[in-house]
Amino acid sequence: MRLLLKMEAKKDMAYDEKYFHKFQGFVYKHIEPYYKELHDKKGYKFFCFSNLFPIGDMKKEDKRNWVISSPDSAMIKWLYTNIPEEIHLGEMEFFLKERKIFVPKVEKKIVAATPIIVRIPEKNYEKYGIPKEYRKKRYIYWRPCYSFDAFVKQLEENLLKKYEEFYGKKIKIDKLFEFFKFKKSVANHVIIEGKEQIFIGSLWEFYFSKFTKEQKEILKFGLDAGFG
Predict the structure, then answer these.
(1) Which of 3.30.70.1890, 3.30.420.150, 3.30.565.10, 3.40.50.700 is the CATH number of 2-102?
(2) Per-residue pLDDT reduced to its tens digit, 215-224
(3) What are the counts of helices (DSSP H) followed by strands (DSSP E) for the chain?
């Protein structure tokens, strides 16, 4: 389930490219019944959010959209009811003009407009043929100099793990992704414990000729929980 927020800039503002932790902090602040459990939880958080779009610096009264999504429909409904009329995302300030809940459809073309971040664990370096000069302890982030198979297989594995953890059940599937197109790499700036870290993500398009029931179920979950 997704929540679309339509907003209006309160003043002239520069677009903050280091937005991630500020957006995340806003969501945590306004999902109070879930906050402590989610904030302290290690691993998957089961919500995600888009960039502000259209991307770019803003003049006063410019319009921007923001989407927050989660497979937890109760969380999205809580946000819908309790979101404030003025939205502060770091130095970016907006008036909330409209809010809308919707359920995305699983289409035969899925465009990842927000970077997908995929970690490759150390145990899979040999499996995916990661060059020795790029190997680090624990994990690395996928980038185009590694095999595309490493990205797709790790993405499938991550999505299945997230699905199974959220629903508490296993699901069998032979192949999740059919055709895919790499667009570009994107660096995400994230502040963790007061220190800036850079996460390498990538933009993709995914194409499907048909869906199995299980495939569609997992892809729908991925659209709500995030693919990475």
Answers:
(1) 3.30.70.1890
(2) 999 999 999 9
(3) 6, 10
